[in-house]
Amino acid sequence: MFEELLKVPEVKLREKGDEVTMSQSLSLQHQLIEGTNEQEVQFKRVMSEHDAFLKRNRDLGAILLNSIALSHQTCLEAGMNFQKQFIKIPKYETDELKVFMRQHAHACRITGEIIHLLEGGYPEHWLDGVLCMKVVTCLVIKKCGRNAAIDYIKHGMVQSVEGIEEHRKTADAMGQETISDEEAESYAELKHNITQGNSGWHWAREHTGYKKIDKLREFVELDKWSHNYKLASRNVHSDYYEMASLYAMREAKEDMLLCGQSNSGLTEPAHFTAIALAQITSVFLTTYIEDNDSQLDYCDSTLFMKIIDNYVKEIKRF
After folding, report:
1. How far apart are CA 218 and CA 201, in angstroms?
2. In angstroms, what CA-CA distances link 33 with 12, 47, 207, 212, 242?
3. Structural domain includes residue 214
4. Which of 33, 88, 245, 292 is the most exposed place for a label (fewest CB within 10 A)?
5. Cβ-Cβ contacts under 8 Å for 240 (sequence gap 6 or more)
6. Residue 296's domain spans which residues?
7. Phi and psi dihedrals of 317, rounded to 5?
8. Minimal CA–CA distance to 275: which of 67, 5, 43?
9. Is there a domain that residue 100 lies in?
10. How much is the pTM?
11. Tens-place pLDDT, residues 245-271
12. Tens digit of pLDDT for each residue in 198-226?
């Protein structure tokens, strides 16, 4: 379409006997683009091709995509079922371990995004790595207890304050309003009270001795997954790497530049996603299991976890 549009102005100008200059050509091209419905036609064609790919991809990977979608839905329902129980118990209303509930909700949303990307033919993404980080966070808090959960919440507050500080630095350049000096001082005081002025303060360091994700993975004995985490992160970063290493190029017979969709390489990211969501769901569903006075019934949670585990095993087979 664009090649044809580039030729039209030159032909029209020559027919009139006008000299073909760059400015005249650009001016006429602009009028042609504005005066035609080619953009709408092109958009419909692109969307039609996209929809056709989605249908083919769903047909080819129907069992795999159905399994990860059902695993996702089961994890979501398991979390909702457990949440209905504990929110009725007054002593858990302000309990710090409710961070697991929020982490589980985030994990369910991210998994939905990953499924959407897999259906669309995009197995390379950084969201696998995000889920892995959430698994590590949940397991560290689970292992270290309520004080770790409290510090994790405080760390979120510090991150918010640092975001505000960064916004104040760039607000003028972006032409945006920002908070007042008085408000900034109150936030800075909050940050100081939490960190005691320690610029390297991190929620996990006091409880584990570490703050880097690599070390925290080792702390919760998940270091065997470090390669997969790094691969998920690297494939969307600006490092130089050969495209043959991409999941989506697994069936490629020759070197090529992948700049769009592929129906290859969906199994591994689907499996890693299912494992991560299952782990986070398990942590959430067993949050208070060691509390003999919790008044919680874990029968449903046990059944849900068994079903989820079966889905994870099923996805691995593809």
Report:
1. 20
2. 15, 20, 62, 52, 38
3. yes
4. 292
5. none
6. 73-145+205-250+262-316
7. -70, -20
8. 67
9. yes
10. 0.84
11. 788 888 888 888 888 899 888 998 999
12. 989 999 999 999 999 999 999 999 988 78
